[in-house]
Structures are given as C-alpha cells and as structure tokens.
Amino acid sequence: MPQKKLDFLVIGAPKSATTSLYELLKEHPQLAMPATKEVPFFTDHRKYAKGMARYLAAQFPDASPEAVWGTITPQYMQGQGEVDVALTARRIADELPFVKIVALLRDPIDRAFSHYKMQLQRGYERRSFDDVVRNALGKPLEDARGPVDPEDGFRYIFVSEYGRILQLYYDLFPREQILVLTTDELKDGPTDVVRRMCTFLSVSTQYEPVAPSTRARHGGVRPRSRLLTPGFIYGIPGVKRVWKNAVPARLRNRVEYRTNLWNIRPDEVRLDRGSYAYRALAEFFAADVAHVEQLTGITVPWPAWSASRPAASGQQSVTAN
C-alpha cells in the first residue's frame, strides 16, 4: 500500500490570519491537521533529513488515511534559518508533486507592520518601524532577501513580496493546484472562504465552522510577560539548546503555540499612512503587487494600490493578526 502523504499545504503568508484559517478548518471531519498550526518540515533541515514518513508519524499519529491531510505552515513563504523559499518550493515539488497549495495574502504593508509588532512583542526588535524600513530598503536587495531568522532585524519586510515568492511555486506547480485567497475575503466572508477551501480540497462543503467570525489571534506590541518572550528566554545561556534538543517536538510546538497566543497584550495600533514607512513601502511594493495581480488573476483590494479603481474605493486595510 502506498505511503500516505500530505494532500494540501497552506504556505502562508505569515501574519495573514493563517491562525484563524487553521481554527476554522481544524474541526472538519474529512480533514486531518496537526495538533498545532506551525510544524514546518520542508524548511527544517533536521526533520527533512529524517524523512517525511517520520514527520507524518509524529504529526498525524491518529489520522485516518482516508482523510485529507494538510498543514498550515507560514514558513513556506518566508524560509527558515538557512532554507530560503526557493529551496522550500523545490523540496515540496520533489516530495509532493500533486499537493494542493493555498496562499492567504494580506495587504503587504499591513502584513509587514504586523510582523514588526510581533517582533517587538517577542523581544527581537527595538527600533522604530521607520528605522526598520529605512534600513531594509537601504541594503542591496539580494542581500536583504532570504530566509527569516527571528533575530535578524529586517528581513521580514521582504516576506510581503508575494509576487516574487509565489512565482517560485507557479514555476513548479500547475495553476489548478494553487488557490490564492486574501485576508479581506476571510474577514468579510469566513464561511464563504471555508467553502472555497473545501471545494478546492474536494471535501464536503456542508461543514459549518464554529464561531466563524471570531479572530483567533490579536496582535499587539507588548507582551503580557516579558519573561515569557522568546527574546528573553532564549537569551539565557543554554536554555534554547536544551529546550530544542531535550523536549519532544510535538510537546514543544504545542507549548510554544499556546504560550505565544496568550502572551500578547492586544492592541489596535495601526501604521500611520502619512509616515515615511508607509509611503516608502507603498512605492517599493507597487511592482510586486502588479505581479501578484498578473500572476493570480485577482484584483487586490489593498488601499495603497487600489485607490484609483472605482470598485475598490472605500476599502479599508485588514486588521487580522
């Protein structure tokens, strides 16, 4: 009997309401997903070297082989450590040539700012957002792009280059295997998005998610407890090494996921559209946004680039975190 493999991957983007999508889908009786959202395989050198069979045994121990298996893994649109997105996409294509791929895209400026807020909250960032953007855009782009290290101060800006990133997947997979959604759609019609996902994955569209309008994650600049932030804990000599090597991955992932969700002091801090950072990123992302529209065939609802379109007037930037 052929070994069961993953049927779908939600590849991101990070900070684009992928947690909300996970919570909406996880109770579908025909879907099987890991107990926690982010359990990367293709961007993790050690797990990848041990093979997919071992990974699936750890993450889907009780899942029926008749179910549709998948993960929601934002690392697949940003890279991780030394593994960039190009290598990630090639690994996925080699291992899972028939997998269905879903990308959830948020306004790229809002996404970058939300990522910045998360870095502040987790103790990895201390600069103003204007300084982060000025520093990022002042470097050679090929040096600035690449895998994202949580402690690497600016690369998360470039995770919002969706056109550049998605092109890597479109070059390797047929268009019919890729579904692109926006967080605006998820916010305005979560049940409709779930039905589209179910249709794409060939599972029952009769499934009704519980509390579909509830946000699973609220962003914030400050933690509830600085002592529980990764930037503080992993700064203690030896803690990171012991935690990563001595604690089973499944337990570690669950603890980190729940702790990080709890340790956010929610706020509604938004980026001022008159700020240097907003204006600079609107100009910087313009060509990439056009690439997204050409590549996917969707018309994005993001204010910095859709203001001139009559149908998009009055659109507000998304607030999902």
Biggest pleated sheet: 5 strands, parallel
The rounded distance between the terminal residues' Cα atoms is 42 Å
Rg over CA atoms, rounded to whole Å, is 19 Å
Q: Could you report the average pLDDT, rounded to the nearest whole number?
A: 85
Structure description:
The radius of gyration is 19 Å and the shape is globular. It is built from 15 helices and five strands. It has 321 residues and is α/β, with parallel strands linked by helices. The longest helix has 21 residues, at 276-296. Strands 2-3-1-4-5 form a five-stranded parallel sheet, with helices on both faces. The chain has helices at 18-25, 45-50, 52-59, 85-95, 108-121, 129-137, 141-144, 162-170, 183-188, 190-201, 230-233, 239-246, 249-262, 276-296, 303-306, and strands spanning 8-12, 31-32, 68-72, 100-105, 178-182. 43% of the residues lie in helices and 7% in strands.
Key descriptive features of the protein:
about 45% helix, 15 helices, about 325 residues, globular, alpha/beta, about 5% strand, 5 strands
Quick overview:
The chain has helices spanning 18-25, 45-50, 52-59, 85-95, 108-121, 129-137, 141-144, 162-170, 183-188, 190-201, 230-233, 239-246, 249-262, 276-296, 303-306, and strands at 8-12, 31-32, 68-72, 100-105, 178-182. It is of the alpha/beta class and 321 residues long. The protein has a 5-stranded parallel beta sheet with strand order 2-3-1-4-5, sandwiched between helices.
